Amino acid sequence: MKITFANQDLPKSGAAIVYALAGRKLSASAAQLDKQLAGALTRAMANSRFKGDKGQTLEVLAPGKGDLTRVLLLGMGAAKDITDLMIENAAASAVKRLNSSGENEATLIVDSLAAGRDTGADAARSAFGALLESYRFDKYRTKEKPDAKPTLKKLVVATEPHKEAKKAYAALEEIAAGVFTTRDIVSEPANIIYPQSFVAEARKLEKLGVEIEVLGEKEMAKLGMGSLLGVGQGSARESQLLIMRWNGLAAIGKAKAKTAKAAKAASDAPLLVVGKGVTFDTGGISIKPAGGMEDMKWDMGGAGTVLGLMRALAGRKARADVVGICGLVENMPDGAAQRPGDVVTSMSGQTIEVINTDAEGRLVLADALWFGQEKFQPKAVIDLATLTGAIIISLGHEHAGLFSNDDGLSDQLLEAGLGVGEKLWRLPLGEAYDKAINSDIADMKNTGNRAGGSITAAQFLQRFIKQGTPWAHLDIAGVAWTNEARPTVPKGATAFGVRLLDRLVAKNYES
């Protein structure tokens, strides 16, 4: 779907999308269109349950002989309650509705909806929501019926400050590209995306200025990454450690810095983001049940989010230094596979008794986290992983689990998540939970008991965080994939975390 911006004029053809507020109060453009249509919108509202409440839509076939086909009224509720997310979701719902109606072209007219809101920014957000809704992963469908395919080919966003809106949309479009990168790679089957092919996708970011480094098994063995390597030793696919570096502060540079603050920022340590990249998880020797195992292609959702984040940051030229690391492995049960009871030595020197080979993600992250801290001395560390089924028992599919050793970082993440609709819920850490992973024969074991499974997994990861380093762990097992479409998020891979972390960087790390 092509999205363009234009002056705020009433369309003469195709579908028109306009707004209504609570109490059936039409926006200025909707009222103008209603007058042009001889009160058709007013009559339709009077004879329906549509009151302009948040999330309501009313579709009216355009009367008369003109080329205008239909009008879609979007309810926004009370003006004082309108948020950016509501703007995005309303536009997304309009795109979904018009696709099912068979429309080819539409014009979305964005007026000033509430005092204090930036109309140009609202228009850009509307286009962003429409773009996110347009995503489809359909490359393997060869016999889809025409009626099942989306029909909307062109969306014009008409608003008075259309030049400002277009400029604001440019950055949002790059964030959407990051979201789509994650959705694509997480949706791919495991015979297409495995450690080496994941790396090949990441190398496409080099043209945007992202520096790429890759460690193979020999390099990781020299560094002592026995924890990560043990997970992949049963697979024919070689494990990889992918390092992506976005040096956004180079755009400032010490030589070009106009202020002392900018010069200091140019020499700051980077933010480190680490993702679990188990491209397929059978469970290894502790093999999973057959039912639902096909879903384990998205057990690399954390790594997929890191890839999408780096795409978004590089695309919009974020003025921050960010390093993304993905531990990429395939967990398979052949004759060389790791066994329950094996003891491995991590890069940190700590030893781990492997109780359950299906608790493999934390083993991958342990070495990736340590390597990142050793090499980059980051100002803060965030990891993302589809780590535990226990987090779904705790939080369902509404929130990702947040664990952290730093209140400030936690607050920043919670705020960023609320701002983009990717909600987090902070869970506790503590000594009593940590004792649950003590081993009788090694420094630790990779699982505790059934109680507090998500917490003991986070406690395991915390043992690989250096003293004094702010750290947060996001368990995204319940939110990386959805079986129920929502506005801006279709069924399938959600790309949870891309927008959240992009917002975190923009509000707290950019110079």
UniProtKB/TrEMBL annotation:
It comes from the Bacteria. GO terms for cellular component: cytoplasm. The keyword Transmembrane helix does not apply. It catalyses: Release of an N-terminal amino acid, Xaa-|-Yaa-, in which Xaa is preferably Leu, but may be other amino acids including Pro although not Arg or Lys, and Yaa may be Pro. Amino acid amides and methyl esters are also readily hydrolyzed, but rates on arylamides are exceedingly low; Release of an N-terminal amino acid, preferentially leucine, but not glutamic or aspartic acids. The active site is at K288, R362. It is found in: Cytoplasm. Residues 356-363 form the Cytosol aminopeptidase domain. The keyword Metal-binding applies. GO terms for molecular function: manganese ion binding; metalloaminopeptidase activity. Its cofactor is Mn(2+). Its EC number is 3.4.11.1, 3.4.11.10. Mn(2+) 1 binds at D281, D358, E360. Its main location: cytoplasm. Mn(2+) 2 binds at K276, D281, D299, E360. It is an enzyme of class 3 (hydrolase). GO terms for biological process: proteolysis. Gene3D superfamilies: Leucine Aminopeptidase, subunit E, domain 1 (3.40.220.10), Zn peptidases (3.40.630.10). Binds 2 manganese ions per subunit. Presumably involved in the processing and regular turnover of intracellular proteins. Catalyzes the removal of unsubstituted N-terminal amino acids from various peptides. NCBIfam families: PRK00913.1-4, PRK00913.2-2, PRK00913.2-4. Belongs to the peptidase M17 family. This is Probable cytosol aminopeptidase. The gene is pepA.
